[in-house]
Write a structure and sequence with these properties.
Layout: H1 26-40, E1 44-50, H2 56-66, E2 71-76, H3 83-93, H4 109-125, E3 129-134, H5 142-151, E4 163-168, H6 171-177, H7 182-185, E5 188-194, H8 202-212, H9 222-232, H10 236-252, H11 260-271, H12 284-307, H13 312-316, H14 323-330, H15 343-349, E6 353-356, H16 361-365, E7 370-374, E8 379-383, E9 393-398, H17 416-423, E10 435-436, E11 442-443, H18 452-464, H19 475-485, E12 489-490, E13 493-494
Parallel strand pairs: 1-4, 1-5, 2-3, 3-4
Antiparallel strand pairs: 6-9, 7-8, 7-9, 10-11, 12-13
Helix pairs in contact: 1-2, 3-4, 9-10, 9-11, 10-11
Length: about 500
């Protein structure tokens, strides 16, 4: 309805899982990297989880669209199946004959697995790789989980023949953690939980989708963006629904930009009115219960502290220890002047944002900066060099880069490259650099082009930093460069 009004070629905020509209926030970029791990891993099981509406299905479709020609994909989007039905669905996706001959009984589980195994062997011999993606995996019944485990046994003496990717809501983690599923859980070689976007990522997200739909103008005011953030809590699907409704309201009122009032009305129409909580009157009985509960907590804390000094970090969780504040102090931020007690407050009151990481110990060590880690009992803040075992959760404070949505490769142009060139500059002045432009001519002002000379410098830096020397400026390389520069990076300026 509003496409012509805003000169759009398509709906920018459709909730359909369209890979062309995918915005790669740092978290989505990391999630896609975990999916891409399936292209190089020799079989096994990969797990991707995230809240409802986080864009998991869109990521899967983007992954499928970019796989090389020698990869065969089976995509199962409805896991509410029996074990034979799952095998039939996989065979059907891989174009493996799985129908019984006319007049005969349906193929048994063994017959289906035999046909699948034979086809996998033939594809393996021909240099092909097979990946099976199961979406909405949290809905799988218990017998199906056992069938998944059996599928991971399809292998040669050297390699697994089938890579499985389980995609689902957070409940999938709890299901896999159950004792009865420990065999399956132990076979997961990579897992990643997709968190919600932070507030600083919302404007680039909106602009990216508008640009993909044909309009590069800013159609949302600052107040509207703030309102959309509050109403969506960083969930992409809710952002899309609210933004779509807000543009409709902007069109209906004949305005050029969405205002805060329009966005708030859109939130009411999409989400509804917030429920009002009825405060119960205080009673003497309730007051006494609260006091007794407080005394009990204090007595328990005292006893634990007296009998076991090693438990002090656990007690600190109840007595004010806050990993966000502690990490802010390590970053040199003034916690007395600003509220820095959560990711939202850090994002609002400082140049930093939280970045959740699910990295190996060796990757965490390349950060060369303080990070907050959770061991399963308590949070603590340590330098990345002190990490000995992979934490259950970890995060750092970093400076997001506006306009950075995906890895930058040699031969591409990006405003980020000028900053990278500055960080990796030798003692000689920048004017001494010989920059090779796409047409082969040496130019001194072509700073945003990722030329071969800079690519070699990036490769050397990656090697020295303990990173994969692939010349690609991805998230890990970017964080290492930021640690080296110790500067606040904003494309086009430095503070």
């Amino acid at each position: 309805m509003y496409l012509d009004y805003f000169n759009l070629s398509r709906l920018p905020f459709s909730i359909a899982p369209d890979p062309e509209l995918l915005y790669l926030s740092p978290s989505h970029h990391e999630a896609l990297a975990h999916l891409n791990y399936a292209l190089t891993a020799h079989g096994g099981l990969i797990c991707l989880t995230g809240e409802v509406g986080m864009g998991k299905t869109t990521l899967c479709r983007a992954f499928i669209d970019q796989v090389p020609a020698h990869i065969d994909i089976a995509y199962i989007f409805n896991p509410m199946l029996s074990a034979p039905e799952l095998l039939q669905a996989i065979c059907s996706e891989l174009e493996i004959p799985c129908e019984a001959d006319s007049g005969e009984r349906p193929l048994t589980n063994k017959q289906l697995i035999d046909r699948l195994y034979q086809s996998l062997i033939e594809r393996y011999a021909n240099g092909r790789k097979v990946i099976c993606i199961i979406d909405e995996a949290q809905s799988m019944p218990a017998p199906l989980l056992e069938q998944i485990r059996l599928l991971t046994n399809l292998e040669t003496n050297r390699d697994k023949l089938l890579t499985l990717i389980l995609v689902g809501q957070p409940e999938l983690q709890d299901i896999l953690a159950q004792h009865s599923n420990r065999q399956l859980d132990q076979r997961i070689t990579a897992r990643f939980h997709l968190p919600a976007m932070n507030k600083k990522q919302l404007k680039p997200y909106l602009q990216h989708r508008l640009k993909q739909a044909g309009n590069e103008n800013e159609l949302f005011s600052r107040g509207a963006i703030s309102a959309i953030w509050s109403g969506s809590n960083g969930i992409p699907r809710l952002i899309n629904s609210i933004a779509d409704r807000a543009l409709l309201g902007t069109y209906a009122t004949n305005q050029s930009k969405t205002t805060k009032a329009i966005a708030q009305q859109a939130i009411k129409e999409v989400i509804g009115q917030p429920r009002k909580t009825v405060a119960r009157p205080s009673t003497y009985k309730g007051l006494v219960g609260s006091v007794l509960a407080g005394i009990l907590i204090l007595m328990t804390a005292f006893l634990l502290m007296s009998s076991n000094p090693q438990r002090i970090p656990f007690i600190n969780d109840y007595f004010g220890f806050n990993p966000y504040t502690a990490l802010a102090i390590e970053k040199g931020l003034d916690v007395d002047r600003s509220d820095l007690t959560s990711c939202d407050s850090i994002d609002k009151n400082s140049p930093y944002s939280c970045l959740m990481l699910d990295w190996t110990v060796s990757d965490l060590k390349t950060l060369n900066q303080p990070l907050a880690i959770y061991s399963g009992e308590s949070w603590r803040v340590v330098h990345s060099n002190q990490v000995k075992t992979k934490p259950e959760q970890s995060f750092i404070l970093w400076q997001p880069i506006e306009g950075y949505t995906s890895a930058v490769k040699p031969g591409e142009s990006h405003a980020l490259i000028a900053w990278v060139r500055d960080v990796l500059a030798d003692d000689a002045a920048m004017s001494d650099w010989q920059i090779i432009s796409p047409d082969g001519a040496g130019q001194h002002d072509f700073l945003t082009y990722y030329d071969p000379i800079l690519a070699q410098k990036v490769a050397t830096f990656q090697q020295d930093s303990g990173l994969k020397s692939d010349r690609i400026i991805g998230l890990k390389t970017l964080l290492a460069l930021q640690a080296k520069s110790q500067k606040v990076l904003v494309l086009g300026e430095e503070e």
